[in-house]
Design goal:
Length: 310
Amino acid sequence: MGVQKVRTELEPFVDYLRARLRLRVWNLLGVVQRPSKSFDLSFVLWTSPLEMSHVKSASPLDPFLCQLEQTTIIEPRTLFVITERGLLIETSVSNAYAARDSFLKRFFYLPSPVEYFKARILRRCRTDLGEVVALGTAWPFNYFHFYRDFLPKILLLEGANVDPSVPVIVPDELFDQSFFQEAIRSERLSRWRFVSPRGQFIKSENVVFCSSKQFVVMDRSASPEAELMARSSEGVTFLEKPADVLALLDLDERGPSGAATRRIFLTRGPNRGRTLSNFEEIEPLLRERKFETIDAEGMTLREQARLFRE
């Protein structure tokens, strides 16, 4: 029992050391090689006035789309695109800056260089797809990031006339979510061929990746949470085209509706994290003020849309 307790207590520290070591290895692999000019030219849709950084994400990044016509290997968990020489392309995953942030790196997964080289050297990669779209996003299982980071990528793909028949690689943790499975049955999303790697590295000869906009904590000396709140209060837009995103899900049609008179208090179960520790104290106040307490966990996307319109 004592040994198990020690292991549990040491686990966060071991994870921290592992993440630091992985970042150092990827940094080293990035330093010892110089990406070719063809890599710069592969950004077919790039609106940022800032210089492109191949290893570290620029700050902030405006919408971009890259079509890279060279052999790469795609890591299965977060879908980092990695060149054959071991260059991890940080811009292939939205919000990958978190790996370098003093606070957020504790919650961000970096791929293992060892697993990458094992898959490459031992040829343990899926090779039958050839041309793919990789929609890598930090925290892919998260409902907020599905709306904020994933769906705007589809708008970029449509705007760049990417062929919907090209396999679109989606992280397993997102693919297996019930809201994702419901979403891809919509008229526009059903046109795309979504593929889950199921934990397997994918080798590609032509890969497309993109990002709508990456939010970056600017002041590393201040508390990241405080900086995030400060920028939010200044009018930072987390979702630039909400109507366009809802249209992807067939949720943009309001139809006839009555007055929005319902009073809703949205809660979430402890299994989802970020729950209220003092809900028992709040509950009587909600009843007194005629609020309905609702957990949207089991609701469909259409049911949620109807609820909030009321």
